[in-house]
Amino acid sequence: GVLPPGGRWEGSDAGLDPRLWIREPFLSSRADFEGKVIVFGHTPMKHVMLGKNKIGIDTGAVYGGALSAVALPVESAARKLPEPKV
């Protein structure tokens, strides 16, 4: 999961990484994550989760569910990635 902007993780004082333990607060969050859409897995669901701020693509293939994937526009990714060095 991802902390919403301005959010504070309660386990940070104990050295816990919020990305490992913030599943439910992240799933129910309505934050816009500074205009970013978060694509995530490792949370099996019956159907792909499509929201304004998140896309969950784990549909439980390991348990007999469908195998899901997502195709993202190349243009948006290309603007943020550095050019490969040859």
Structure description:
By secondary structure, the chain is an alpha+beta fold. It has three helices and three strands, in the order H-H-E-E-E-H. The chain is globular and about 40 Å long. The protein starts with 17 loop residues before the first helix and ends in a 6-residue tail after the last helix.
List keywords for this structure.
single chain, 86 residues, 20% helix, alpha+beta
Short description:
The chain is of the alpha+beta class. It has helices spanning 18-21, 23-28, 74-80, and strands at 38-40, 49-50, 54-56. The chain is globular, with a radius of gyration of 15 Å.
Helical percent range?
10-25%
As laid out across the biggest beta sheet, the strand order is 1-3-2
Rounded Rg = 15 Å
Give the overall pLDDT as a whole number.
81
Characterize the biggest β-sheet: 3 strands, mixed
Structural class by helix and strand composition:
alpha+beta
Which stretches are poorly predicted, pLDDT < 50 over at least 5 residues?
none
The topology string of helices and strands comes to: HHEEEH
| Strand tally | 3
Strand content: 5-15%
Helical segment count: 3
Topology:
Layout lengths: L17 H4 L1 H6 L9 E3 L8 E2 L3 E3 L17 H7 L6
Parallel strand pairs: 1-3
Antiparallel strand pairs: 2-3
